[in-house]
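Milestone 3.1: sequence recovery, worked example.
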């Protein structure tokens, strides 16, 4: 009798689960269970069952894993990372087991040795009958999808403030994401991307000659996930700001996976690697300043040690350049109204400063 396919879930992470779904189903021949979109319930489930002082993404991921199990997943996969993220998997597994859930758990931190044989072991932990050639073909296509998601998302937030019909523009972006989640082939991926690229470029807009530009840096999860940061990028575009965010999976993991080159470019502020994404965020902030951006926003989750360390460097960059920086910390209790007030005040300050310097 043929064994039923595993029902595998990976926690929600911005809009990158479309690529993960594609990789799981096309490359590993397992059924991917997409956890529901992150909601207040997700946060409440995670917070109720997490240690009090763990960083906020842990609570979000734990809550989403619970929802994945509720949705029928029998196998959970957890990624690895350079900070406390590397310990998330083991702690999550113990908490979920204590809650009474039964499941297989694949913690990629256990296989993160850099050796090909251990990578293959990780794949076989998900599906013992995995075909490497099929997997790597699907991986290349999933990576291309990830690059497209980052490119289209970047275009969307850079231009959304100036389009005449935001509702239609938002619809183009949503349709693109739907196409990526539904893609069954390389052709589907390419078709969805090119269609969105043309439609976004063709949207009527009224762009001022010298708009306010704000660059976003910050913690790898919270800066990219719109639920975790309360849609800060969309709020800024509603105020009329051109928004840029360097921190993406494409930039951080594909184009600039190491810190050596970035380290050289910020040697006046940092004399050694600070670990995790701290060096990259410091470089990105300095790059925004050099390119004449009007302001920089730093985003982190509560209890995120690496980004707390980065704030000292960012303060020095802001002081030397006289470019305003806004620091935002997000946790379970962060108020949407309070965030809106801070963003509006920051916008007013940037607008007045730009008027004086013009």
């Amino acid at each position: 009798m043929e064994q039923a396919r595993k029902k595998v879930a990976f926690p929600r992470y911005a809009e990158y689960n479309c690529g993960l779904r594609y990789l799981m189903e096309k490359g590993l021949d397992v059924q991917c269970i997409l956890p529901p979109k992150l909601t207040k319930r997700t946060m409440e489930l995670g917070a109720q069952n997490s240690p009090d002082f763990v960083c906020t993404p842990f609570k979000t991921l734990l809550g989403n894993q619970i929802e994945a199990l509720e949705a029928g997943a029998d196998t959970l996969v957890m990624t690895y990372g350079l900070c406390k993220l590397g310990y998330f998997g083991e702690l999550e597994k113990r908490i979920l087991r204590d809650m009474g859930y039964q499941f297989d758990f694949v913690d990629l931190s256990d296989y993160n040795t850099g050796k090909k044989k251990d990578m293959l072991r990780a794949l076989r932990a998900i599906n013992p009958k995995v075909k490497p050639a099929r997997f790597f073909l699907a991986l290349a296509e999933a990576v291309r999808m990830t690059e497209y998601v980052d490119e289209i998302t970047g275009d969307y937030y850079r231009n959304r403030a100036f389009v005449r019909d935001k509702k239609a523009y938002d619809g183009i972006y949503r349709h693109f994401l739907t196409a990526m989640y539904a893609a069954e082939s390389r052709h589907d991926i390419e078709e969805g991307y090119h269609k969105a690229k043309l439609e976004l470029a063709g949207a009527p807009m009224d762009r001022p000659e010298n708009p306010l530009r704000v660059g976003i840096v910050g913690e790898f999860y919270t800066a990219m996930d719109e639920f975790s940061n309360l849609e800060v990028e969309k709020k800024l575009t509603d105020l009329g700001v051109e928004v840029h965010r360097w921190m993406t999976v494409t930039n951080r993991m594909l184009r600039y996976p190491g810190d050596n080159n970035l380290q050289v470019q910020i040697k006046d502020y940092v004399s050694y690697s600070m670990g995790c994404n701290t060096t990259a965020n410091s470089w990105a902030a300095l790059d925004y300043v050099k390119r004449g951006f009007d302001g920089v926003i730093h985003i982190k989750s509560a209890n995120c040690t690496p980004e707390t360390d980065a704030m000292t460097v960012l303060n020095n960059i802001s002081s030397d350049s006289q470019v305003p920086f806004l620091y935002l910390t997000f946790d379970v209790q962060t108020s949407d109204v309070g965030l809106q007030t801070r963003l509006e005040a920051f916008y007013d300050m940037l607008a007045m400063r730009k008027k004086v310097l013009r």
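The mean pLDDT is 90. The CA atoms of residues 31 and 116 lie 24 Å apart.
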